[in-house]
Amino acid sequence: MAPQTHLGAQDGRIRRWFTHMGRPLPWRLPAAPGPHPGGWGVLVSEFMLQQTPVDRVLPEWSAWLRRWPQPSALAGDAPAEAIRAWGRLGYPRRALRLHESAVRIAEHHGDLVPADDASLRALPGIGEYTSGAVRAFAYGQRALALDTNVRRVIARHDHGRAFPEGAVTRAEAAYADSIQPRRAGASWMAAVMELGALVCTARQPACERCPVASTCRWLALGRPEGPPPRRQPKYAGSDRQARGALLAVLREAGGPVRQADLDCAWPDAAQRARALDGLVADGLVAPVTRGRWSLPG
User: Fold this and answer.
1) Which of 22, 79, 129, 159 lies at a CB distance of 3.0 to 4.6 Å from 31, suitable for a disulfide?
2) pLDDT tens-digit series, residues 129-148
């Protein structure tokens, strides 16, 4: 059962704060000026924002939408172009899945990103969170988008816990659904997400600037500590860095590259081979001839 002062009951205060303090992100309303980018713009932003900070995404998102303003534009280019344009956003499989989604949207949905959960989740790379985010932020539907920021704000304000526990459970999703306002649920979701990103942050929450501090259970309990969220594994020297180094050579090349070029990109032979095998398995790199490699398509 939701507490009487649950976060949904603070809808007005949270959304007023969001109107005045939210960042003017181009894929979001009501904080963003100008025309809304629609389902495609929101979908691209959600793919890019997975495990990547907003400040790194902003210029890449704008460049992407200028080059490929609708799904069919991206679908008409080779997957290699999507991987090249992805640059250093990280986790380049997202670029491949986005290209695959663009092809399906162009072929089966009239070049419009679908607005229903079943159709969205049938697209490559789209799960429960991304479907909810697109439906909420592109189409204004009352849909859950439980990212780490939203989960943390609810855990603190309603339950007095410093952090949510593990992956989203059915109980957690059901609780969030029960407190999401019936009206303006999409803008409430965006506001809570922004509150977690700017104020109720993981490591240095600014409770003095929080619009719902007076009803926050965690603050009332003296901000008890809890198990912190798991840190990302170290990037330097990792297989991820090795993959990125090899992929950078392929992105910058106009065509196939020799094995010798890849050998120069990463010194550890065993790790280099492991990274290259992984890129091939993920469909990000394709063998051309013996000892020559290229991006797919």
Assistant:
1) 22
2) 999 999 999 999 999 999 99
Using the 8-state DSSP alphabet, how is residue 7 labeled? Answer: G
Mean pLDDT of 85-90: 90
The span from the CA of 140 to the CA of 136, in Å, is 5
- CA dihedral 14→20→23→24, nearest 10 degrees, is 120
**Any idea what the Cα angle at residue 204 is, between residues 203 and 209, rounded to 5°?**
140
Average pLDDT over residues 181-190: 94
Going by C-beta distance under 8 Å and a sequence separation of 6 or more, which residues neighbour residue 250?
257, 285, 293, 294, 295
Instruction: Give me the helices (H) in 92-169, please.
Output: 93-108, 117-121, 128-137, 148-159
| pTM exceeds 0.85 for this model | yes
Query: Which helix H or strand E contains 8, and what residues bound it?
Result: none
Q: Cα–Cα distance between 288 and 241 in angstroms, integer?
A: 24
Q: Domains in the chain, start-ordered, CATH in brackets?
A: 37-137 (1.10.340.30), 144-220 (1.10.1670.10), 239-294 (1.10.10)
**Is 46 a known active-site residue?**
yes
Do the beta carbons of residue 176 and residue 154 sit within 8 Å? yes
pLDDT 10s digits, 111-121? 999 999 999 99
Contacts (Cβ under 8 Å, ≥6 apart) of 205: 156, 199, 223
Instruction: Summarize pLDDT for 217-258 with one digit per residue, the tens.
Output: 999 999 999 887 777 788 889 999 999 999 999 999 878 999
Q: Which of 46, 60, 172, 194 is catalytic?
A: 46
